[in-house]
Amino acid sequence: MPLYPGELLNKRYRIIHLLAEGQYGNVYRARDVVDNRDVAVKEYHDSSVEMQKRFRQEARRLSELSHPQLPEVLDHFAIESSGQYLVSSFVDGVDLQTLLNQYGRLPHDPLIEWLQAACQPLTYLHQKGQLHLNIKPANIRLTPNGDVFLVDSGLPGLGVHLHDTGYGSPEQQAQLDVSPASDIYSLGATLYTLLTNQIPPNALSRESGLADLTPAREINTDVPPYLSLVANRALSLRPDARYETAESFANALTRPNSQPTPPPAEPRRSPGRTLGSPPPPRLSPRTRRQIEQRTIVGLAVLLVFVLLIGAIFTVPSLWQPDEAEQAEATVTLESAIVAALTSIAPTPSPLPAPTLPPTPSPEPFITDTGARMIFMPGGLFRMGTDEGEVDERPSHLVRMAPFFIDETEVTNGQYAQCVAAGVCDAPQRSSATYHPAYYGDPAYDDYPVIFVSWYDADTFCDWRGGRLPSEAEWEMAAGFDPTQSIILRYPWGDAFDGLKVNYCDAGCTREVRDSSVDDGHQDTA
Q1: What pTM was computed for the model?
Q2: CA–CA gap between residue 409 and residue 469 (Å, rounded)
Q3: Residue extent(s) of CATH 1.10.510.10 domains in the chain
Q4: pLDDT category, 525, cuts 50, 70, 90?
Q5: What is the pLDDT of residue 122?
């Protein structure tokens, strides 16, 4: 059932309008009434238990990504009666499909620049082991600042390879194994569409011989031969015959004086190297002169920029121009697009290679005191509960940075090292009388230290070069299951097990003991 403008989703997101619709769900623009900003809400209709698990995992993977040309994942949730939802930051601007619909064929130089810029976030995704699987002109957006964003990921982790006919590779359409080469096919289809204003034929129809791919230059004679060949290679039916990486595709777009490298005879292996940024796009001398001569008169919003291009571009349709006039019109359109972007961003420059945050090593390590620290990946997770104590309500999403945490409690032996260093105070027995004095007995060096205050614990952590975990970090470490992206009731699952905790069982001497459980130890174990 579609969402309607004004509808409040999950008591937080007020629907503004539909952005896109597909076979498995829709994408909406909405207003976050809590944070007071516009967001994009991606809806997925299948809300089965298995799909909910996959959706949480995929949402978590996406939440760990950070790139200046990708929307930020902000929230995810499921509503049993309607489906599952992924909320991300909304990228304002205009997409390439809108420009194509309004003006037909676009000039080659800005087109190349935009596609090369789109290859940067795609390269980042591939380096992180993630695919996009939904690349098309409608999902490449230009912002008022002139930046290029790649939006609306196809959620490859759901196991259902969503695609638009014409843009999906044969393996993606057939629901077979997909790879970065599948995204390269979609890049080629996007290039082909932008050059010809025609979507390439369905890949499975081509594979079965029911359709042929007409070279872009045969549809639009203004297409440079090398660009037609670039599109053809990226649209190869064999994955190993396409460009190996998004970077190599971007580089091929800037080779006007040479033919692209022919497809390899043998399947390629992953290069295992760091990908850089594509070289900056080149504008023709004539275009540069026109840009320098043009007086920029303050196009403050992108809507004005779009209308300006339309006014210039529709003039030639009023008469039949000769070749010189047609060439002049093409250059004028190119100048208008670049000039408009220049007016919005007064100091344009090629998009720099993104500076990515360092990723902590996921390998556990042993500290000087002998503690084993394990890696927690961070990202989005749901903290708290709607059913527990008052101070645990309501459940809410928290974004965590990656961190390391001790695998077990601090032991007597580890704490004794801080005492021996003259930094920590020895544990002091307080009002409790039912715990034996473990501290100082070598037989209990591996037992958790007790009878220390919060200040003692803080001092110990500072001495060790660490700190006490926050409540959110502790909750994630103690109960988060990364395989299902959910918080468990206990570290091992949702069912209580008295043998896995420090529990007053049959060996306990207190009146509140639980005689049905016996871990074989009188006290802590």
Answers
A1: 0.55
A2: 12
A3: 94-290
A4: low
A5: 97
